Amino acid sequence: MPEGDTVFLAGKLLDRALAGKTLVRGQFRHPELATVDLAGREVHSVGTVGKHLFTRFSGDLTLHSHLRMDGSWKIQPAGAKWAMPAQHARVVLMTEDVQAIGFRLHDLKLLPTAEEPALVGHLGPDLLDPQWRDEHAALAAANLAAKPDRELGDALLDQRIMAGVGNLYKCEISFLLGVSPWTPVSEVDPARAVALARKLLVANAWRHEQATTGDLRRGRRTWVYERTRQGCFRCGGPLLVRQQGDGRYQRPTWCCPRCQPGPVPADGPPRK
């Protein structure tokens, strides 16, 4: 699951590449949009809200996209060989000098720009909102505390509470709070959880590498996330990996039983 900082950076790079330019090609490879042609439209801006990306064109038109688990945008010089196989392309936006290809994008929608809030109005405060204020932090903390019996890991992934946290940060925030991701929300300080979430996303928002330890070297970037073989970055002890969440929201979840006291499911095969 792409984190909010991944989407934020994608939006900034797309805005830098496309804003103020006119499309010479604007093609969709998507059943509902296959007949739409955006050629001739100017790209006004690209912005993000949580994990939602909005590309705004002249004529009061916006393209909404969501990366979900495996989607991505690739920016290359016009005419360059695509970074991924053509069968994975869903959107082709090309100007005279650059092309932006949306690969494996599952959610695509064209809508009037004024209607963007209808797609994100249900979200909690955006952790990377440039206008973030104390009121946003207080609202996110109140949202988190609203269901005290809920497992912390599940709550952190709920974009209605605060927008931007994915599975990596869910695991790392739980570690930095010193509790298992299966700990009830009532046993943590919601304001501290929100502050940690924003701090981590802001720290990583302008780079491709994601680090929660402060160390960008390979194998040293996270405390517990995907460190099954290396062990806990703090104590070196073995980690537990269990599935958390239901159905399509289920995610592998790492924790250190020594550094993170609290409940952990007893069953489930180890993840290698």
From the structure above, extract its key features.
alpha+beta, 272 residues, four-stranded antiparallel β-sheet, single chain
Describe the 3D structure.
β3 (52-57) and β4 form a beta hairpin. The model has no long low-confidence stretch (mean pLDDT 95). 23% of the residues lie in helices and 21% in strands. Strands 1-6-7-5 form a four-stranded antiparallel beta sheet, with helices on one face. The longest helix is centred in the N-terminal third of the chain and has 15 residues, at 4-18. It contains six helices and ten strands. It has helices spanning 4-18, 117-120, 134-145, 152-157, 167-177, 190-204, and strands spanning 25-28, 43-49, 52-57, 61-66, 72-77, 89-94, 98-103, 107-112, 240-244, 251-255. It is α+β, with helices and mostly antiparallel strands and 272 residues long. The chain is globular.
